[in-house]
Amino acid sequence: MNTLTDVAALVAVFSTGIIYGTDVFCALVLRPAARDARDASVADLLGRVHAYGDRRLPLPGVLAIVATALATAVTDSTPARTGGAVALTALLLWLALYLRVSAPVNKRLRAAAAAHTVPADTRQLQQRWDSVIWIRALLQTIALAGLLTIVLTR
Questions:
Q1: Based on the number of CB atoms within 10 Å of its own CB, is 99 exposed (0-12), middle (13-18) or buried (19 or more)?
Q2: What domain range includes position 129?
Q3: Model-level pTM?
């Protein structure tokens, strides 16, 4: 394994780890807390959480995808290349799921929080968001496993 592969794989691991940790926290803590909260609380707090997350998390998300692609492309190990391909596929599936399901919900809740309003469909919005968080966390887990294959196979 060469230095470029090592650096790219480590950047990918740490960048993916940020999104992985966020999604696992949301699945384990935020999802059940939102389910038990009042609609006004969900709309306000989660709208603000998504406002910060949607501004700050694209950088590690994009960095994870780019670094994974680079590490996969430059490795000279077949197991590492396979692990990288699995990781990249999982990250791209995660991105598609995020853009199709989570991002539209985030946008609605961000707008409601900014306008100090509570959408009539707050509960349904949160249920839609909740419906994919475990899948997102699983895809991040798969991505990390694939990336660790790059790091550990020499």
A1: exposed
A2: 3-152
A3: 0.94
